[in-house]
Amino acid sequence: MKIFKFIVSKILLRKAVPGIGVMLLLCMANYITFTAARSILSAFQGYQETKYVNQEGIYIANLDPDSHIDMGIADENGTQAVYSYLNSNFKYAFYTDGFMISIPNSDDMEISLGYMNEQYYRLNGFELSQGTDLYFDYQLDREIPVLIGKGLSKTYPVGATIEMEESVLGRPLTLKVQGVLKQNAYHSNYYALNSKTYYNFSILFPVNEEFIDRASMDIQFNGLMDIILLDTSEEEIASLSEVIKDNLGLRFNFFSQKENYDYFSEYYFHSLKIIFITTFILLIVITCISVWNALVSVRLMLKDLTINLLVGLSYSKLKRIFYGYFGMLSFVNVALISIFTAFNRYGCWLRKDATFAAYGLFGLIGMDWLALLLVVVSDIAIGIIVVESMLWKIKKVPISLGVLQ
User: Fold this and answer.
1) Contact at 8 Å (CB) between 366 and 321?
2) b/e burial code for range 113-134 (CB count within 10 A of at least 16 → b)
3) Would you state the pLDDT for residue 405?
4) Which distant-in-sequence residues (6+ apart) come within 8 Å of 55 by Cβ?
5) Which of 12, 40, 48, 119 could be disulfide-bonded to 93 (CB atoms 3.0-4.6 Å)?
6) What is the rounded CA–CA span in Å between residue 11 and residue 4?
7) Burial of residue 82 (number of CB atoms within 10 Å: 0-12, 13-18, 19+)
8) Contact (Cβ atoms closer than 8 angstroms) between residue 25 and residue 285
9) What's the pLDDT at 146?
10) Number of helices and strands in the chain (H, E)
11) What single DSSP character describes residue 67?
């Protein structure tokens, strides 16, 4: 332990500025690696989840960014006309988010609402931890079957009813819990695959034609923004675009999911390239500062180091001390990143942010743990490069000079 303290204090940390600089740069490199790794894992999950729409003949609606919404033109009659055309000529998957509502629950969270038709439900393949599949041939004046997130299952088990005083139908509704989604079920954005919304505190409504007809214009209008057309062609899409433009005064684009992938990749991989270049530069800087700092300190403390080498300190033991020191730095950095990430995750619960609240071991979800594992692997690689470079330079210092001193 005495020799360890000597090497760390008199060589690695003899000069405070370079020593602390290496710590900070390593922490920065770790955090960048962690953020990039988690983003890549999240994007991979997004690719896996959206495979169901990456098929021939499937197109996803998207409002043209240059199209201005004029609510004087986009009225209820216009949306009804568009849905009538959709129902007569297309098979489509409908999903849209509704408003946040407050209903009693054990975590005192606001609840997000989602509305989907049967095509979307079958296409997406929701996994349930409890209960049975939704059915869509219900009557609006009776109990409406719904799916709920894992966080609501404590208060509302399968078979329980939920009373909603206000709804998109303009009247109170009675909901019956048909099933519970698996823990941390999520929905990825079609255009930003690394972005996702969690369903832990959500209620998902089954939507049929009668529901859409009687729903508020907000739900009808928002539902058009990401509507998925199935088994269709570009000619049929062109006709639908004209119907939307004539009735709502809006221009809609319809893209295949492959085109959405290409759009995402264009800016995402450019961002990753910048991250990798930054990390590589940090690695070079960390190595150079560490080697220079160690070399200068060794020259200043050459007499003491020589004495230690003569009385039993070997280069292999010196190497183990260096690895032990960088191992401690890595452990501290990984611990700090874990605490910071867990605190951010917990912040979603404190803010009652239902769309991002997720369950995990010690506050971290599986994606976080995998990213931390990659940070550990990168630290091992950095440690090997830095330690071997330092030792290589130290071995070049003639010990005979220390003997003469």
Assistant:
1) no
2) bbbbbbbbbebbebebeebeeb
3) 42
4) 257
5) 119
6) 10
7) buried
8) yes
9) 94
10) 12, 13
11) P
Tell me the pLDDT tens digit for each residue of 284-310.
887 777 777 666 655 545 555 555 555
* Cβ-based neighbours of 266, under 8 Å, separated by 6 or more: none
Can you list the pairs that 347-351 forms with residues at least 24 positions away whose Cβ atoms lie under 8 Å? 349/107
**pTM of the predicted structure, to 2 decimals:** 0.81
Question: What's the alpha-carbon Rg for the chain, to the nearest Å?
Answer: 30
Q: Under a CB-based contact definition with an 8 Å cutoff, are residues 127 and 182 in contact?
A: yes
d(Cα 13, Cα 7) in Å, to the nearest integer? 9
CB-based contact 306:394 (threshold 8 Å): no
Is 228 in contact with 58 (CB distance < 8 Å)?
Answer: yes
Please give the Cα distance from 310 to 307 (Å, whole number). 5
Q: Which tens digits make up the pLDDT trace of 275-288? A: 888 888 887 887 77
User: Whole-angstrom Cα distance, residue 146 to residue 163?
Assistant: 12
Burial class of residue 254 in the structure, from the number of CB atoms within 10 Å of its CB (0-12 exposed, 13-18 middle, 19+ buried)? buried
Four-CA torsion 383, 387, 389, 390, nearest 10 degrees: 140
Query: 361: which DSSP letter?
Result: B
Distances (CA, A) of 345 to 153, 231, 283, 359: 21, 40, 29, 9
Tell me how far apart the alpha carbons of residues 395 and 197 are, in angstroms, rounded to a whole number: 55
pLDDT of residue 183: 93
Compute the residue count for the chain.
405
Rounded distance between C-alpha atoms, residue 163 and residue 166, angstroms: 9
CB atoms within 10 A of CB 135: 12
- CA 230, distance to chain mean position in Å, is 28
Q: What is the pLDDT of residue 372?
A: 93
Calpha distance 173→104 (Å, rounded):
16
Under a CB-based contact definition with an 8 Å cutoff, are residues 150 and 359 in contact?
yes
Element (H, E) at 307: helix 302-310
Spell 99-110 as b/e; 16+ CB within 10 A means b: eeeebebeeebb
Which residue ranges in the chain fall short of pLDDT 50? 300, 399-405
Q: What pLDDT score does 342 carry? A: 92
**Angstrom distance (rounded) from CA 400 to CA 403:** 5
Provide the residue type at 261 as one letter: Y
